[in-house]
Backbone:
């Protein structure tokens, strides 16, 4: 997501007319050993936002988005898949691996993106959560979304792509943004895998479970929360 935000800034500054932005990360023994040493790898399925969540499952993958200014795309008759209307980025700088427990930095990043896009929380039709399935990350993200979206949060479908994909690490933001765009285009909010509604710990989150849910999604919020408190 940082790459996408930087690409958008380059386009706005007319430093580039076309940007390819995204990320990839290969599976490695180093990454597997690192997450195992932190005791963040689940033995069973990855079950974000669940009471019995154990942690994440490592995966590899990539996604690349072709980005250009909207006027240029419309002028050449391109099919516009989505508009990156706003970007917010903060750093908690609180701990090497743990997010801020109250989600303060992540909430500020989300609010910044909404303000830059000229959107109200009630305008959001879908939230693609970072949702690693680790105890600390999911509780911090739930707190962040509560701060950022407020009273509108219980009415916004929340999806968690990692329950299907695993955590693609440096690719996760781009991969999940691509999936968010596809959800918007199809008008469907995909459900979590291996999760029932009764399993969800956070009553204020409308986490999609069971089957895909039809949804009118004119705007979506995609979240990434990384080590070092990078939001």
Residues:
């Amino acid at each position: 997501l940082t790459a996408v935000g930087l690409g958008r800034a380059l386009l706005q500054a007319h430093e580039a007319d076309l940007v390819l932005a995204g990320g990839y990360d290969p599976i490695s023994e180093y990454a597997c050993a690192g997450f195992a040493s932190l005791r963040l790898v689940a033995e069973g399925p990855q079950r974000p936002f669940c009471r019995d969540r154990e942690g994440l499952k490592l995966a590899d993958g990539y996604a690349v988005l072709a980005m250009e200014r909207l006027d240029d795309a419309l002028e050449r008759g391109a099919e516009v898949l989505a508009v990156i209307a706003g970007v917010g980025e903060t750093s908690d700088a609180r701990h090497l691996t743990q997010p801020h427990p109250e989600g303060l930095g992540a909430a500020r990043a989300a609010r910044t993106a909404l303000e830059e896009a000229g959107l109200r929380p009630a305008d959001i039709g879908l939230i693609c959560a970072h949702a690693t399935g680790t105890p600390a990350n999911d509780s911090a993200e739930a707190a962040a979304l509560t701060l950022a979206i407020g009273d509108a949060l219980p009415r916004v479908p929340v999806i968690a792509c990692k329950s299907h994909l695993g955590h693609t690490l440096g690719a996760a933001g781009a991969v999940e943004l691509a999936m968010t765009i596809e959800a918007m285009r199809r008008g469907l909010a995909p459900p979590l895998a291996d999760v029932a509604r009764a399993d969800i710990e956070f009553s204020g989150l409308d986490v999609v479970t069971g089957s895909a849910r039809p949804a009118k999604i004119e705007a979506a919020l995609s979240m990434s929360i990384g080590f070092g408190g990078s939001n």
Remarks:
- The mean pLDDT is 95.
- The first strand starts at residue 19 and ends at 25.
- The chain is about 30% helix and 15% strand.
- The beta strands are 19-25, 61-67, 126-128, 157-159, 188-189, 206-207, 213-214, 220-222.
